[in-house]
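Action item from last meeting closed. Structure (250 res):
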């Protein structure tokens, strides 16, 4: 096992615990199998080498082995299922806070991409089943180079701080933060929303977004009380659900 991930110095809050795989195609898919087999809430599955990571909207997710974090968290929330999409926001703010604890200020590109400046440092893929949710997180920790398709839009904590970081410490910071924020999707959601609003990189920008009738444009006015994106369009004030892709135009 990779020395960097020896558990000696790091404790996870209850019920979170770490399971490490040398290699996995996708930690979301591997954790789903464990969840279907009855694994209890709080299991965190991390792959040292994730070979076929999945992103949102069917995109591939690149994780540099030995440099990045690719892991998934199993939850069995008590809250009504309609509130589970809020776990995306809880995960986004948890990653943002953890990254900030190592120095750089972060932004959140709603719903849950974590940015440093105008570059993406982390992506989150939440997948829900009947009685569990899997929160998959990919974070560029010590990467210094990226595939050419994302080289212009990606960054890492190392590139932004000029220092290497222990990935286990970064992971533990995320889990500590997520242990708090994942409980805020029901009560105290306003507090979670405030943290997102403070970091929302879309507010005040003109954006394009996908819709059933094709691409449309609007001005982002902020985040609605339910966590949706508030957009001023030619049709008036609209609320965008979390599945939709948004691009900054100006
Ligand atoms: C995105 O920004 O499109 C979401 C990327 C999510 C990537 C993570 S890496 C760990 C987990 N396993 C996966 O296959 N995907 C998520």
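Sequence:
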């Amino acid at each position: 096992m990779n020395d960097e991930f020896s558990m000696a110095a790091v404790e996870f809050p209850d019920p979170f615990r770490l399971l490490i795989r040398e290699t996995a195609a996708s930690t979301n898919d591997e954790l789903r199998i464990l969840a279907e087999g009855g694994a209890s809430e709080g299991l965190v599955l991390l792959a040292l080498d994730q070979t076929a990571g999945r992103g949102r909207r069917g995109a591939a997710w690149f994780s540099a082995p030995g440099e990045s974090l690719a892991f998934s968290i199993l939850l069995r929330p008590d809250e009504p299922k309609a509130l589970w999409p809020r776990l995306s926001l809880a995960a986004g703010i948890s990653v943002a806070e953890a990254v900030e604890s190592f120095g750089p200020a972060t932004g959140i590109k709603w719903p849950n991409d974590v940015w440093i400046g105008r570059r993406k440092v982390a992506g989150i893929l939440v997948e829900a089943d009947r009685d569990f949710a899997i929160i998959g997180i990919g974070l560029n920790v010590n990467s210094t180079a990226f595939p050419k398709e994302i080289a212009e839009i990606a960054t890492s904590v190392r590139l932004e701080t000029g220092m290497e970081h222990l990935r286990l410490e970064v992971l533990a910071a995320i889990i500590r933060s997520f242990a708090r924020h994942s409980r805020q999707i029901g009560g105290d959601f306003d507090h979670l929303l405030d943290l997102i609003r403070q970091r929302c990189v879309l507010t005040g920008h003109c954006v394009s977004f996908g819709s059933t009738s094709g691409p449309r444009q609007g001005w982002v006015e902020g985040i609605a009380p339910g966590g949706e994106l508030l957009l001023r369009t030619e049709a008036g004030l609209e609320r965008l659900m979390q599945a939709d892709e948004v691009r900054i135009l100006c």
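Note appended to the action item: The first strand starts at residue 17 and ends at 24.
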